[in-house]
Specification:
Blueprint (H helix, E strand, L loop, with lengths): L16 H32 L4 H8 L2 E2 L8 E2 H26 L6 H26 L18 H11 L5 H25 L6 H19 L5 H18 L4 H9 L18 H25 L6 H9 L2 H28 L10 H11 L4 H11 L4 H27 L1 H11 L24
Antiparallel strand pairs: 1-2
Length: 443
């Protein structure tokens, strides 16, 4: 891979060709999922503000499931606790694969998206707190709402505006968002668990451990693994810890590379990539859009309702946090890494590209809506105002990112043409086979 004179990889460098090819496939699926997410959210918004809004609320609040297991949940709760567990399982698989077998196994490369994700969470939270200092009505419990980045939504925006975002930046955006999601799960587990039942939590470790043993033995039988995963989810739900945490824990038990008996890492994709390939379409194409449909139905209540939301410091803190907080946090963290590690920006990129990426990071939706529900509860005025803030901040961040990326579109097109130069007989673009300046095919 390319490196600077000090031996430190360039900031946002393109990485290796196999990894770029794999990530490109992931991005395509996430982009399609993002378009479906947009459709689901728009249907919910239109329906919730139509004369038939009562039907939407009835559907959202319909309860299904066995009451004996405390699982007689509303459809919106099933979407938030159940379907998003699939989303976080896939995110966990992706993150583990990146750190075990991907380009981020090099700690110097991993430090960049991790730092950017941390900065992109800390600064928006700070903005929110500053807007809500002095309130004694529990508003500060929503401090984590503007910290999340919705990768599917962000990639959908890129697909709609048809920019030629450099591959290095697209990969960085995906990695940053995955790290962001996993950090958000840690925040949810620690700060949004009101009552902890130790018994069910300890019992959840039993099916989790059995699941881990089976996948380490490369067992793929769904009729064995699915009941264990479901049992882990149910017990995690009973413990009071948000059930989506089960998805991440299950993902971390799955091996990334093949066993020595199967030929080792060179024998092809491991079980994690197999599960990811099978479940990503379900996550991006069903789980996230359905969650968006049940969560995005904000009834604005006309101009007066919008006015009340616009003057609520919770909504303002969220919107400013998503737009300004994310832009400042991600850009500043990336600059600090480049400044103090002597890493240089990849030669195909400029700092305006990083700012554009940081603005895209302000597109918060899925996890932000989830944290809003946990922080304020369903149905309260603050909950509704917070959702308006999420939508306003997300739209503003998307528009600003679109303007900047459009201005950079000519440069992006030139970079895309350079990276799409005629491939040799081996099918690997020349840009991945150059010397130190361009990187090598094997990294």
């Amino acid at each position: 891979m390319p490196s600077t004179a000090s031996g430190v990889p360039p900031v946002l460098s393109r990485g290796t060709w196999p990894e770029a090819r794999r990530i490109a496939e992931v991005l395509r699926q996430e982009t399609v999922g993002g378009v479906l997410l947009l459709i689901g959210a728009l249907i919910a918004l239109v329906w919730a503000n139509s004369p038939w809004s009562a039907a939407y609320e009835t559907l959202r609040d319909t309860r299904v499931g066995p009451s004996s297991l405390h699982l007689d949940l509303t459809l919106s709760t099933w979407a938030a606790d159940g379907l998003l567990a699939i989303f976080f399982f896939v995110a966990g698989l992706e993150l583990k694969r990146e750190f075990v077998a991907g380009d981020l196994r090099d700690p110097r490369r991993a430090a960049i998206p991790i730092a950017a994700a941390v900065g992109g969470m800390a600064v928006p939270a700070l903005f929110f707190v500053l807007f809500n200092l002095g309130r004694d009505d529990g508003a500060l419990s929503g401090w984590a709402i503007p910290s999340a980045t919705d990768i599917a939504f962000a990639l959908a925006v890129l697909a709609v505006v048809s920019t030629h975002l450099p591959a290095a930046l697209r990969i960085f955006l995906l990695t940053l968002a995955v790290v962001d999601d996993l950090l958000a799960i840690v925040v949810i587990a620690i700060f949004y668990t009101e009552e902890l039942a130790v018994g069910p939590l300890l019992l959840a470790l039993v099916p989790l451990a059995v699941f881990g043993v089976l996948v380490q033995k490369r067992v793929r039988s769904w009729w064995l693994l699915l009941p264990l995963a479901a049992a882990t989810w149910v017990l995690m739900h009973e413990s009071g810890v948000h059930a989506t945490v089960a998805g991440v824990l299950l993902a971390f038990t799955v091996p990334v590379v093949r066993s020595d008996a199967a030929g080792g890492p060179e024998a092809g994709p491991g079980l994690a990539e197999h599960f990811e390939h099978r479940l990503r379409p379900l996550s991006a194409g069903v789980a996230v859009p359905v969650f968006a449909f049940f969560s995005a139905g904000v009834a604005f209540g006309g101009l007066s309702g919008l006015g009340a939301s616009a003057t609520d410091s919770v909504a303002l803190g969220i919107a400013v946090g998503l737009v300004a907080g994310k832009a400042v946090g991600i850009t500043a963290a990336t600059w600090l890494v480049s400044r103090f590690t002597r890493a240089e920006l990849d030669e195909s990129l400029g700092w305006p590209d990083v700012v554009g990426l940081a603005l895209l990071g302000g597109i918060g939706f899925t996890v932000s809506l989830l944290i809003t529900e946990l922080a304020f509860g369903l149905g309260s005025d603050t909950y509704e105002h917070a959702k308006v803030g999420i939508l306003a901040g997300t739209v503003a961040a998307a528009l600003l990112a679109t303007v900047l990326l459009r201005l950079r579109n000519r440069r992006y097109r030139a970079i895309a043409e350079e990276e799409a130069v005629d491939a040799d007989a081996d099918g690997i673009p020349d840009v991945y086979q150059r010397g130190p300046a361009g990187g090598s095919a094997d990294g």
